[in-house]
Amino acid sequence: MKIALILENSQASKNALIYKELSTVATAHGHEVVNYGMYSAEDKRCLTYVMNGLLASIVLCTKAADFVVTGCGTGEGACLACNAFPGVQCGHVTSPLDAYLFTQVNGGNAIAIPYAQNFGWGGELNLRYIFEKLFVAPFGGGYPPERCEAEQSNKKILDAVKLVTHRPLIEVLHGLDRDFVKKTIDDPKFAELFYPACQDAAVAEFLRAL
Predict the structure, then answer these.
(1) Bond into 188 cis (ω within 30)
(2) SS3 state at 44
(3) Rounded to whole angstroms, how far apart are CA atoms 80 and 196?
(4) DSSP class of residue 106?
(5) CA-to-CA distance for 33 and 96, rounded, in angstroms?
(6) Cβ contact 111:66 at 8 Å
(7) β-bridge partners, 110
(8) Binned average pLDDT, 10 residues per bin, the chain of 210 residues
(9) Cα–Cα distance between 96 and 193 in angstroms, integer?
(10) Separation CA 27–CA 112 (nearest Å)
(11) Which alpha helices (H) appear in 62-122, and where do they start and end?
């Protein structure tokens, strides 16, 4: 699984810490982490949590990534923004228990973590334990076991609902303010990371034209 890490401006200074904890756990489970930034508070590109949602949708809908780890100060804004865009089913995860239940019950493809709220002494340990429980079992297994069929059925229903309630990403991109989209991807590393992995030629062409 390819995991995209996406951070907004208020938490950019924690990029190295979050990337380290995520990579350590993900690599141990055979996954790859791709760091889409922000990389530091001094980056030219200044991502907001709304941009996080757009960027998550871009990498997931084009299959450049299979899963997104994002967040903001509380995690709430990033979660709301992610779920506003097509192809993203994001959970708000604050603890290892949240992480495990989200993967087993909801089987989504993104999580938003609070990187400021309650992030004090031992914050990096909580991150590590969240990531450990995130990847400990295949997604969609169900919990408790006797509820797995109902939960898997609900997941399929939600997938079908989102196909109706959300327009395709390329249509959304054409409808958005172009400056907003351009600012979201305006980082030298984006092209290096995204285009070789992108599997949607129409989206790639649109973004390159910006």
Answers:
(1) no
(2) coil
(3) 29
(4) I
(5) 19
(6) no
(7) 68, 90
(8) 97 97 97 97 96 98 98 97 97 97 95 95 94 94 88 91 94 97 96 97 97
(9) 29
(10) 20
(11) 76-84, 96-101
d(CA 68, CA 55): 10
Predicted TM-score (pTM) above 0.70: yes
Report yes or no: 69 and 113 within 8 Å, Cβ to Cβ. Answer: yes
Tokens 């989200």, residue? 102
Handedness of CA 76, 81, 84, 88 (dihedral sign): negative
CB atoms within 10 A of CB 96: 18
Report the length, in residues, of the chain.
210
pLDDT of residue 142: 86
Rg over CA atoms, the chain: 16
DSSP 147: G
Q: Which two structure tokens, joined as six digits, stand for 206?
A: 């649109």
Q: Alpha-carbon torsion 138, 21, 23, 156, what sign? A: positive
Type of residue numbered 77: G
Order of strands, sheet of 67-72, starting from the edge strand that comes earlier in the sequence: 32-35, 2-5, 67-72, 110-114, 90-92
Which residues are 72's β-sheet partners? Answer: 114
State how far the Cα of 208 lies from the Cα of 107, in Å rounded to an integer.
32
